[in-house]
Amino acid sequence: MLLLALVPTTLIVALLVISLYLSLRTSVLDPALTLVNYVSLFGDPAAVDAALNTAVFSAIAVGVAMAFGVSVAWVVERTDLAGKSVIGALMTVGLIVPGLFTAMGWIFIGHPRIGALNTWARDAFGATDPVFAVTTVPGMAFVQGLTLAALVYVLVAANLRAMDTSLEESARMSGAGWFDVMRRVTLPLAWPGLLAAALYVLTIAVSAFDIPLVIGVSNRITLFSTYVYGKAFPVTGVPEYGISAAFGAFMIAFGILLGAIYTRMLGRARRYQVITGKGYGPRPVRLRRWAFLAWAFLGAYVLVAQGLPLLLVLFESFQPFTGPPTADSFRTLSTGNYGFIADQLGDPESTIRRSLQHTVVLILLAPALALALSLVISWVVLRTRARFRFALDFVAFLPHAVPPVIFALSASATALFILAPLGLYGSLALLVITLGLSQISFATRVTNSALIQISTELEEAAYVAGASTLAVLRRVLVPLLRPAVAFGFLWLALLAFRELTMASMLFSKDNITLSQETWALIRGGASTQAAALSIVQTAVLLPLVVVYLRYANARS
Amino acid sequence: MTGPFGHPLSVERLRKSFADRRTSVAAVNGVSFAVDEGQFYTLLGPSGCGKTTTLRCVAGLEQPDAGTVTIAGRVVVADSPRVFVPPHKRGIGMVFQSYAIWPHMTVFENVAFPLRVTKSGLGRAALRARVEEAVATVQLSGYEDRNATQLSGGQQQRLALARALVGRPRLLLLDEPLSNLDAKLRDRMRNELRDLQRRLGITTLYVTHDQVEALSMSNRIAVMHQGEIVQESTPRDIYLRPTAKFVADFVGTSNFMDAEILGPAPLGGWSLSASVGVLRANAPDGVVAGERVIVSIRPENIRVHASDPGVPNTFSGRVEQVTFLGETIDCRLRVGGQLLLSRQHPSVRLRPDDPAWVELPVEQCAVITETHGLSAASYIDDATLATDSEREPRP
Amino acid sequence: MRASGISRGLATWIAGLILAAACGGGAGPVAATAGATTATFSPALQAIVDAAKKEGQLDLVWPGGILDGPNELTPQIAGYKKMYGLGDGFKVTFTPGPQMPDMAAKIVQEAQAKQKASTDVFLGTETHFIVLRAGNAVEKVNWTSFARNIKDPSIVAPDGIGVQVQSTVVAFTYNTNKIKGDMIPKTLQDLADPKYKGLVATTSYAAKLDRIASPQIWGEAKTLAWVTAFKKNVAGFINCGEEERVASGEFAIFAFDCGTFGATRLAAKGAPVAFSIPSDTPIITYYYEGVPVNAAHPNAAKLWVDYLTSREGQDLMYGTEIADHAKIPGSKSAADLKAFSSIKFTDVDIQFVDRDAAANVPSSRGKIIGILTAK
């Protein structure tokens, strides 16, 4: 087990070392090592401005994400609200819809000049100032926060689900009101998990890209990520990966800091083992007359954060080109884009068909790989006394901190220069492995919090009863972890489905994915065809997700 | 009494330390004992004494730093050559403090698990019969198809026991199995567990911090303190003749007196000079005149007389305080400078300030030659009196 | 309104072309009726064709939306196979790939690692081919020695590292609802006028402005002075391919765009956009195609490039892209350009860049971007 845990972590460290090496080079053409990337990254006054914007942006985004994510998770996991399983499924919509569409949609909603909200306020009330300007740092942060809330929800849900309700009930008994229970019992008990989730989305917010690119750059608001992007990926010339890698080095340092904080928190969280061998079955909080309020809240969130982008994509998919929904545009509705998708699906050689096959393989194998390796890592971290166990956990967190472009670039360079004889370069296997490794960050958060909640005695009882390590894993640990792992698998699969950066860096005709094809359509000026493709994907995936969640919940 | 393969369990010079920050804490520090066939053997001690670590080393859940463990004649842990048999190959049954009932399995599946994973070679019918037999043994018949999480605490405890027994292990390990039950249920399960063990004749290693459990269930008890066994004997000996002050104090309540051996007494035993005066007591072999020892006597063994009964070891004193406890009365007596706690039948009428003749029966005085670094006087002041004041509000 | 009139006319023309393609669908590509299958090849071409048949396959990867049409080159692929008699078993794939700079870096890395190239044919502008040349990642081909269609040496890049397959005019894309009459910018200099404040979007990477700064056009001093004034009008940055954000009214003008075809294609879909060519800095840029070293199917690739420069290839290209190569005889783009015959265009090709390099002209790109992106 120990060795098994060392393999992925060694690979991760190796990839990070390679990315550090890349940060010392200026371009693929120049092998000389230099610190010039660091100078151009941190020596520019514009970088300071970008860093300040990023700080404000990240703080607000994480705040919004936590507020919505935790609330939704609590309502879904801890209350008796009817029909809440639908919410769990709807939370995934945000992942299926490409982030670019979300950003585009918010421009149509909240742009000071053309946003529907603002034009409507102007026409109806003669408002001179925009009601909501998405083109400001707080505006973008709010939108980013709404999308990150879905991830917070996933990360926190498992924690809340397994928490012993009697702790809350006893607090209710002693006279504490709902708010007091939340503040004094639920949150303190859940807070290691909450903090872990906050740190996790913080790293995403800091390197967030879609929204800052589409909304920020077009309004001259530069965040660190877009600043780096502008420097590293000129549309002419050679990409300067070195600058990205230098940013990566900075993010690794930031990640190490967060990782250290997180590890300390994990140490504390270990005290809260929740699933013991004793009677276990958390009872939901009864909402009664509050159910109405809960639905209003969930409905508003789902509508604004998940529904609006989806509706917009739906609308655009019937258009010849992308634009804000206006009276005029309703006259140009057509199903042509769906005809295009149908044609492409009918041709076995088409990119959509090929990328569909690759995507199916990718979203099944990469999460499976990540979860299998994460189970081993979590097990070593939480169940053994190996000296380096916390280092292991820490390394598992790192891929998340490194910009995916750098992680993938390192993997690509490794396959190309170091492991050339393996023939991995350009293969789907390389993409599966790289994405799987990078998903270990997320997957270990899931397996850690799940494993923390399972009493060690349940495993020990199996050992003593005569089960080998493998049998303990197979017959006791995996079944007990199943609800959490199944839930984690779904989200990893959706994240894999959505993943674009690594897939692009490791791109070849033999591993192109649907997300890349969608992106290619958008970049190629066929964004309404991309919208139709997204709608088709959503229409296929959403029912699958609902069925999956039903199944996973029914057995948990 | 040993079986055909030697002791069902023997542990020799077992050591286990845990790293704690920069230092290393010895949890088990050279523990040796052997358990006879069919014996109910208890490791008794306060939390942190190393009893659970010892049990876990026997189970194979911890890897000891040194020492030898032999189960049913098979060496499962040894130093040279290095042997460590993993837990699943030791053929033992174990009940955990939390019962460790697998929540994702039914009662039947929980019990069947050991048979399934050890590839017992049983057919479906035979397996079912074995499981049903085990379930019947713990009186859970009819619950087989229940989800394990639907059982009550007592039923879960029985289920854990059935699971531990179903593989017919040579050795049963019990880790504080009663500590999670409420007081009434605990009493009942204690009797059930003892009867079951006697009926099946299964060799059992039991870990507890509860002296009542230890004394009422065990054939032999090893009292542990700071990673070592301080006394190993029958329950009766442990209670009546503690050879260490820690044992006397931990197992029930005891009075302690500093004393010095004067020499052999004419009527047998030894003559000692104690704070209450000269008394006679039986001392362990090897004591010599002039040696400083501690005399321990249980409160319930002290007799109080209204007039001098004319027997040895009787001293004149005074009643200081009386507390009525229902089944007994606790009475604090002063003999010279020595405070003694005695426990009397409620029919005995005693009032504060009454004069009293205090008899310390010769056979009930235990001589402890080991001091563990504390003077007996301070021990009584700090511990016994503190306990008293908690028990009884001063008037 | 001249430009928008043109685009409307083009739209009608395209509709006709598409209709024709649809009707002729059963009989294969519309222009393939020339009956190239029966043609005999020169010995040099025959050798390449035989080698290509042995390779049996052609894998094309370049950014989607450029030259690939709505159906992933399906008609071109059929015409290509037919023209060289490659047979039905010959497999051709097109996959939309990374953006040109990323793809160029990828090809260079693959060449350095001596591994198979990701694509058999690389598509890029002069900038990307210069990167490939510096990385020794592109094959030097003597195209005219075997090619059937590449006859004009002026469309071949120096040393044969690539062939120009399409020419395009770089211009301004504007929203026809928001920009009318006098507001339509006619020159680059116009855009420095304060009346455009808050209306203009440009690329954050200063597309083509570095070429304007060449002594062959404006020179650095004049360009930087212009950028300093222009910058005050810039509302934000968007990328090539995002012309829809002009159509939506989010921005009124996009300058420079990456080719007039962006506006033309969007206008053909009914979007309120048109283009305007700056008369003071009119430039034509080119898409090149070349064969990476270590391409898996180099001979099939050479035939492909030859096919694209054929009249049939060019017509199919124009059908979907509304652009072909103006220098190839029969060009429809050349016909379109006749409307601008008064304008003297500068060719921004590999030779243009090489001339600057030979004269040791330092790149102004960094300075331009610095001014554009500063607060």
Mind explaining what this structure looks like?
The complex is a heterotrimer of chains A (556), B (395) and C (375). By secondary structure, chain A is an all-alpha fold. In chain A, 74% of the residues lie in helices and 0% in strands. Chain A has 25 helices and no strands. Chain A starts with a helix and ends with a helix. Chain B is an alpha+beta fold and 395 residues long. Helices cover 25% and strands 33% of the residues of chain B. Chain B is built from nine helices and 21 strands. Chain B is elongated, with a radius of gyration of 25 Å. Chain C is of the alpha/beta class and 375 residues long. Chain C has a five-stranded mixed sheet. In chain C, strands 3, 4, 10 and 11 form a four-stranded mixed sheet that branches. In chain C, helix 3 packs across helix 10. The radius of gyration of chain C is 21 Å and the shape is globular. The chains are: A mainly alpha (556), B alpha+beta (395), C alpha/beta (375). Chains in contact: A-B, A-C.
Topology:
The complex is a heterotrimer of chains A (556), B (395) and C (375).
Chain A lengths: L1 H21 L13 H7 L2 H34 L5 H7 L2 H4 L2 H12 L5 H10 L11 H26 L2 H9 L4 H29 L3 H7 L7 H9 L8 H29 L21 H26 L19 H11 L4 H33 L5 H13 L2 H15 L9 H11 L1 H13 L3 H9 L4 H30 L2 H5 L8 H10 L3 H29 L1
Helix pairs in contact in A: 1-13, 1-16, 1-17, 1-18, 2-13, 3-8, 3-10, 4-25, 6-11, 6-14, 8-10, 8-11, 8-20, 9-10, 10-13, 12-13, 13-17, 14-25, 15-25, 16-17, 16-19, 16-20, 16-22, 16-24, 17-20, 18-19, 20-22, 21-22, 22-25, 24-25
Chain B lengths: L8 E12 L2 E13 L4 E5 L6 H9 L6 E6 L2 E5 L4 E2 L7 E4 L11 H11 L6 H14 L15 H13 L5 E5 L7 H18 L2 E6 L2 H7 L2 E6 L2 E6 L1 H6 L4 H6 L4 E10 L5 E5 L2 E5 L10 E6 L5 E3 L8 E11 L4 E7 L2 E7 L10 E5 L6 E3 L7 H16 L4
Parallel strand pairs in B: 3-9, 3-10, 7-8, 8-9
Antiparallel strand pairs in B: 1-2, 1-4, 4-5, 5-6, 10-11, 12-13, 12-15, 13-14, 15-21, 16-20, 17-18, 17-20, 18-19
Chain C lengths: L1 H22 L19 H13 L1 E7 L10 H10 L7 E7 L2 H13 L9 E3 L1 H9 L28 E8 L1 E4 L24 E3 L6 H4 L7 H12 L2 E4 L6 H4 L5 E3 L4 H9 L4 E4 L6 E8 L7 H11 L2 H11 L10 H6 L8 E3 L1 H9 L6 H9 L2
Parallel strand pairs in C: 1-2, 6-7, 6-8, 10-11
Antiparallel strand pairs in C: 3-10, 4-10, 5-8, 5-9
Helix pairs in contact in C: 1-9, 2-10, 3-10, 3-11, 4-5, 7-14
